[in-house]
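Feature request, filed as a ticket because there's no other form

It would be nice if the structure record came with a short human-readable summary line next to the tokens. Right now we just get the raw output. Example of a typical job, pasted below so the devs can see what we mean:
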Amino acid sequence: MAGQPIFILKEGSKRTRGRDAQNNNIMAAKAVAEAVRTTLGPKGMDKMLVDSMGDVVITNDGATILKEMDIEHPAAKMVVEVAKTQDEEVGDGTTSAAVVAGQLLSKAEDLIEQEIHPTIIASGYRLAAEKAVEVLNSLAMTVELSNRDLLVSIAETAMTGKGAESSKKLLSEIAVDAVTSVVDKNGKNSVDKDNINVVKKVGGKVEDSELIRGMIIDKERIHPNMPEKVKDAKIILLNSAIELKDTEVDAEISITSPDQLQSFLDQEEQMLKKIVQKVISSGANVVFCQKGIEELAQHYLAKAGIFAVRRVKKSDMEKLARATGGKLITNMDEITPEDLGYAALVEEKKVGGDSMTFVTGCDNPKAVTILLRGGTEHVVDSIDSALEDALRVVGVAIEDEKLVAGGGSPEVEVALRLQEYAATLEGREQLAVKAYSEALEIIPRTLAENAGLDPIDMLMDLRSQHEKGVKAAGLNVYEGKVVDMWKNFVVEPLRVKTQVINAATESAVMILRIDDVIASTRAAGPEEGGMPPGAMGGMPGGMPPGMGGMPPGMM
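Raw output as currently delivered:
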């Protein structure tokens, strides 16, 4: 028995450990970061992603790119998670988060080669991240909800380089107006982006996009005799159907004469008339119904000059309630004038060949709609992605009320302060903090590279300005100069930067601490067609003749 190997893993399992495991993980994470690095900044390029169905996505949004890429390596997936978390938390900075995570691991690889233990590097990185967040907080300025120009600048910065460049000003103003309309001011500002409905319609041009202070419902009126336009609309929002109710139990009605049949039909008609009369009596002239409206009821509503829409989505009904100030009604017997919503105008319009219902002119709406137009589907999708980022960052800025300059300036300032901080530390963590500060400079370096500028010259200029005390000195990639970012209105919410630092650091530390990767292979399934040939009953080629169960003639 002596010297016989002992196998504890299933056959086919693959195990990598020690330095090899660390190198593999770091290389995979770096490859993911490198894949999105060229998309960073105003001069970043786009990626075209084609999935297995042949659908095409054109984007330079880091989270979208990494989501569409079918990544298998487990360490690479962790970098994808960084971008995903960044997108969910703040909506912008996804590429930065992935690039910083990749660079932190690249710097850690150099330290590991100098025989510095990964746990010491991890400890140094955590210290550096805490200090970085502290420095960022000291750089932040306050923004008020009333400072519209600054909020528009935030939206413009988020949209820069994202395919919406030509109409950046218009879309930024739409984004700011939409977000400020839905702010809840209960002690602390809070923004629920779900109250902003974005409707995409191919056709027209980007400049035709508009903000509707109300709702757009992708439905048309149900009867041609109904008015196309209702001014001073009093709106009833119904959760129940305007139909005759079926009985809960099976019931049969026995009719023995034509008179009885006629009176039964008349009774049905009277019941429907009564339901419609309740709507008319409430004073409503517009009905949005979540369920169905029977044909006869449609006729009565049209005769009364009421505009009605049926089978409206539940989410749209809730937004209509927030926009118009109406209440969702389940019981028709309890309708009061206070339950009705109000809009200055409800009309049916054709947009891109489809009829839609516009509810506009609401008093202080808490739900609004943005109608996005564009020449092709890809253009509309690209603008929708850019607008999504703008809405999220404006919302974050209003909630936190804190801003920092953009253009790589906070990263350079934090890097310089970390260099000073490293000198105060004892032990090998000092090297990790220094490496962390160098890793952060990947952001201004990449901005310069993507703009075709010399990254070393630009970085030297940036450092020299920051050493002179110009804390907001950032890179103007259009002119190739270092300028004051506050004066150029290139600003971002503080949370975007702190989230990049936290998410990238946690991900890098987690990958660094792995020194053993055990991967079990998938069990090989049977060949196409189920069983292997000749495997029926364990006999080669199935059963011999005459073994089919019963002798002939016994059927």
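Something like this underneath would help us a lot:
The domain at 220-246+263-346 is CATH 3.50.7.10 (GroEL).
The CA atoms of residues 304 and 318 lie 26 Å apart.
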